[in-house]
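chain below, 524 aa
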Amino acid sequence: MLERLGRALYWPTIAVVALAALYLVFMLYAAGLTSWALGVLLLFGTGFAVYLSKAGFAYRYLFPGVAGMLLFIAFPLAFTTQIGFTNYSSAHLLSQDRVREFLLDQHDTVLDEVRDYSVHGAGSDFRIVLRDPASGAAQFVSPPLALRQTGKPVDVAMQAVGPADATLGTALTLKELVEHRLALAQLRLRLPGRAGGTAATGGVGEASTLHYLGLREFGPIRPHFEEQADGAIRRVADGALFRPDARTGYYEGQGAAAGTHLAPGYKVMVGAQNYRRMLFDAEFRGPFLSIFGWTVVFSLLTVVFATAIGMMLAVLLNWEDLRYRTTYRTLLFLPYAVPGFISILVFKGLFNQNFGEINAILDALFGVRPAWFADPALARTMLLIVNVWLGYPYIMILCTGLLKAIPSDLYEASALAGAGPLTNFFKITAPLIIKPLSPLLVSAFAFNFNNFVLIALLTDGRPDYLSTKIPAGQTDILVSYTYRIAFRDSGTDFGLAAAISTLIFILVAGMSLLNLRLMRNANR
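prediction:
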């Protein structure tokens, strides 16, 4: 029964999925996202080909993994790399068409010609009444209108109120006007006999067309800019011309207005400009290279100290004559068991200069209260201490497992030769552990290279460098520095942040390749 039901629903289900996929593709294409529509169409088309044809049977289990890799790894990487070659930022968020529309939409209201209005009628038969600005009496009325949202401006020819318009019915309430506000906003009310305009209203015909200004008013507007036939924009106030510049992503002033531009800007391709800033801009290169060097040192020292401490503790806990080994192992494992962000916030309180327990102890013993968060060297030392505390249990666990794989015969032979514990460690234990441990240490280095949470919660990158073009912290690592550039201090420069992210990816990818090579050598 269930098998027959499954067969009956098989093709209808496929048809529904296919229709949903085609509808999604159509909606993307209708929204102007042609490349997205082609990508989705290719993805669904490949999926149907794999799962509905016998030729694709061998790829049915491979397709989800490949599709997931393309969607969640390859596409974000390609998108980020592409942004790195643009000027995408808070000042250049929109496309050129959107910026042009925004500028042409800027206007002032001619306050002397603003008129109150009321809407009368019901159903699909509404009439708009405009009142005289001076007396408040009904002066113009529209023909019957159907207040529907069309998404485009609707011109309405107004006419003088006559005897037949004496009874228009009850005016809509404020609540009813709110319901029709979107339809009212698209109306352009044209007054009779005003084609020439007046000098007081600023030019020809400006007061002849009234625009929606709110739930109670219609009035004429005076645009700030006018579009020219060659694509330039003319400022009405002084006649200055502004032309789009593909290098800067702004409408740049011409002639007397040269050297000025109109905000906002638009997104353009700038080539390798962001990468050149990293390499050749002295004001940017200094902090960037310092942060890059600190990132490498921070990751390397963390791995070295965590490995040394973790390996030493693992060797001590492997001593069979040590009493309470289980208790010690449990206590030393606790930093790994507690969520990292909790431990970081606890340490942030412990290192507080005025109220922290660490400074209280140092003050009682030595009479000093170090400025852990204000002094760059101390702040970096604090980061290393906390990160090693969080990382050594992982190394300790790994070494504990690796120690069990070392034959005890080697230590017995060493004892017969009269070797001591240090000789055993450097001649037997360390060489046999370090080889299989090396790929994991490379992974730990890559993890600390992108250890954003520690920096964000403990120091937030502070203290900052002084007199830098882009704000940068002396405890920032590359990933936290990228976050500041993209979302915080420097005006959300997504293009530069994407370029740095691409550089980080290349570095981490190189470490991953090294990791794979080390794993291959370890397995030989």
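Residues 123 and 146 are 8 Å apart (CA to CA). Residues 195-206 have pLDDT under 50 and may be disordered.
thats it, cya
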